[in-house]
Amino acid sequence: MNTFKQFTNEETSVWDKPQEPSLSRNLLNTIKADFEAIFAKDPSARSWFEVLTCYPGFQALLVYRIAHIFHQCQFYWLARFISYLARWLTCIEIHPGAKLGRGIFIDHGMGVVIGETAIIGDDVLIYQGVTLGGTGKQQGKRHPTLGNNVIVGAGAKVLGDIFIGDNTRIGAGSVTLCSVDNDCTVVGIPGRIVRRSGQKVDPLAHSQIPDPVADQIESLIQRIEQLEKPQQISDLQWTPFSVNSSQLAQFREKA
């Protein structure tokens, strides 16, 4: 299993990169693993024929596997053209230069973008609208690396040459710009870690992802209620009174 290490503040933080998926894996076995991942993670999958004909995520991965071979053989234009056809058919863009592991499932898939230098481990689940992109125009490694058993929620953006540890869950709609350790949950914009459970996450338990925005709103409401209580008490204790003109004149004479 891939490991990440983070040293104390007294030392320089060092991240052990996940090993890149082997490029020598048998193509058919890899496609079979992608196929089996759908039945393992999607309860609505009923038959192999339905998966082959109605799952754009699987179709995009299938075409990517072929385009990636051409890219390795330095037929770059042909690889990009094959990738372009897949994008036109599935609305999913996977650069043929990206390195993807086995057992990957792109659910729904609409709007998914995976950049050229992205690396994805095994058994990764990606939902619609996800971007694994870069943050600049620099050459070399500029896209994220995802470990094994990672889940990336709908609409999430993971940007830059960062590392996402094994069994980590990226919440829907979040924007992750920094590396994340194993077994974490990341939510928000910018993304921040809100849970370090140390346990493998359930890929279908999206309703259990913490909502830090809702928590902050709840905290503010409680604070406002606490501040209003003393004011209510003082309003009850205050008793209005009136002074007539004769009483005011007597007071002035004494003064």
UniProtKB/TrEMBL annotation:
It is an enzyme of class 2 (transferase). The keyword Lipid metabolism does not apply. It catalyses: L-serine + acetyl-CoA = O-acetyl-L-serine + CoA. Its EC number is 2.3.1.30. CDD domains: LbH_SAT. It comes from the Bacteria. One of its GO terms (biological process) is cysteine biosynthetic process from serine. The keyword Amino-acid biosynthesis applies. SUPFAM superfamilies: Trimeric LpxA-like enzymes (SSF51161). GO terms for cellular component: carboxysome; cytoplasm. InterPro entries: Hexapep, LbH_SAT, Ser_AcTrfase_N_sf, Ser_O-AcTrfase, Serine_acetyltransferase, Trimer_LpxA-like_sf. Transmembrane segments: none annotated. Keywords: Acyltransferase, Amino-acid biosynthesis, Cysteine biosynthesis, Transferase. Pathway: Amino-acid biosynthesis; L-cysteine biosynthesis; L-cysteine from L-serine: step 1/2. GO terms for molecular function: serine O-acetyltransferase activity; structural constituent of carboxysome shell. PANTHER family: SERINE ACETYLTRANSFERASE. Belongs to the transferase hexapeptide repeat family. This is Serine acetyltransferase.
